[in-house]
Amino acid sequence: MWEFVIVLLFSAGFSNGSESCEPLHAQAHGINLVCCSLNHSLTPSCEFSSLCQEHCSCFLTITRDLDCQLESKSLLDDNKKPYQWLDHQPNSSPFSCRNSNLPNPQSPYTIVVENSNGSQTKEFLLGACSLNVTSITFQHYHSIYDSIDFGLCFPNLASFQVVLLHRTRANFHVSLRNLNFLKVLSLVNVDFEFWLHPSPFVNTINYIHIENSSITELPKWISNSKTLSTVYLKGTSITSLSPIAQLPAVKSLKLSHNLIENLHRLLFVSPFLIHVDLSYNRITSFASHTFSKCVDLRVLDLTGNPIKMLPYKPFAKNIRLKWLKLSRTNITTLSPDHFYGLGALKTLSLSRMPIQTISPYSFVPLKSLRYLDMDSCNLTRLPQAVTANCHLARLNVANNMLHRSSSMPPEVMAMLSGLSQLRIDGNPLTEFPASFLLISRENIRLLRHLLHSTMTLPVWLREPCTPYYWSIHLANRTNNLKSFVNQYDEKRMLKNGLGYCKEQYDWMMEQMEVYRELEKNSGCYSLRRLRSSITSSPTFAPKLPKNVTNSLFFSIDHDPSSPAFHIPILLLISLCANFLLLFSMLMCSIMACRMEKNVENV
Q1: Positive or negative CA dihedral for 549, 552, 556, 561?
Q2: What is the pLDDT of residues 407-445, one digit of tens each?
Q3: Closest by alpha carbon to 25, among 10, 39, 43?
Q4: In this structure, are residues 339 and 360 in contact, taking their beta carbons and an 8 Å threshold?
Q5: DSSP-derived pairing of the beta strands 347-349 and 371-373
Q6: Which positions carry the signal peptide feature in this UniProt record (predicted)?
Q7: Residue 104: what pLDDT?
Q8: Structural domain tally of the chain?
Q9: Are residues 389 and 452 in the same domain?
């Protein structure tokens, strides 16, 4: 009795705690077959050991050498024993396409079809209908496959991919329409159209990838999918995004290089949308409400669209947006309302835009901006608007029309002295900007960028004092920047009759002092001082408010003896005194009114 119970428990534990798996790697008749799991692994020397997963799974590749018998009845009469797949051993015995006798039929199968005979491959796939095929990929697609009902043949199919090197026409109305559990649909270089009636997989699909296709529209029923999270469309003839905009749970939309037009009447309804790429389409306009429900949007790319103007406060609800790309659009005017609500934006790309007007306060809403790209925007001078961002670390104004010293105004450069990168290469600069001398000698990284860029600009040859200005400015420095201008010493300067360069340098430095004070008294300067103090002193690390940039709190330095400490304190005292004065005047007025009433009553 006890022996029977032990055997019963052992068999139950074996059936529940382990699985049956026949590990093997077989190559025969143009078929490459790998089956294994972590507990049932292949031989250590097998090159396909990395395919083994936790549970038993099989990977089958159909190559161009596929060789199976189309007539199965006569073969079964002559060969009573079914075909055997041997581990690392050849088996030259013929086998039927419809009766391949593949091992581990209950384990999930992944099938890859390479360039093979269409009729034989079709028969082989029909013969594999009894297998648990969960993924199939075609690297060569024949029109004969259109007649296979994959939903009936492979009811558990979760991934269907056709990835081709050349454009091919296909009709999936029969083959894909009845799939029940499809999660991944990827079609590359396939010309096709969707069918009108809904498919069962609308309730399971979560990824659609269509690239280089003549498809003109997505079906309306796709908007009913509550599981679709990623849509990738590239190089198609799609013009409308109505079904996509109505997807309730989509997270990523990569829709570049299509024929998408007006977005003015669209509203993307998914609150989970994080990434939207609409670059290189035909979008001419969009509305203030287009992205208003995308409260979690982080990346928005509108590059390469013929957008002429932005609507009023188009991103007011996108408070978490980190990256906004408007490059290669036709926008000519920028104002603060265009960036209203983008307090978390880190990167703004405006390159290759025909900008004509920039309000001095355009970038004020961008409190967290770190990188501003204004490459090739036909700028004739640095705009005042770039001074409004205390966190700005990188500014790209390369390939513009900065050609005079006035193109780099000192009142702007003074506020940019804390940058780590300022790209000015590709500009026709012919005069040395005195504002370069406002850059602190301690900011080695920025000085390196400016020095290297200046060497490539016309000013290096057109204005003979330019190399000597840099040599004098970097004198007594131990960094390697000095080595680039060592040859332009005072002896050479006097020899070439350029002794006046030293006098001009001293005069420019004197003229720049007033702008240096302007920069030091700015809120950005105090913020940088506070950040550097926190970095250098780990014992003093106050918790700062998240959304405060130029408040009085940031103006207070750690050292009470420094001027940066006394200025805010005096300001606070002045404000308190004014408040007390106003309060006293108010009380006096109230008392006077009461006295007048008492006199009247008497």
Answers
A1: positive
A2: 999 999 999 988 999 999 999 999 999 999 998 888 889
A3: 43
A4: no
A5: parallel
A6: 1-17
A7: 94
A8: 2
A9: no
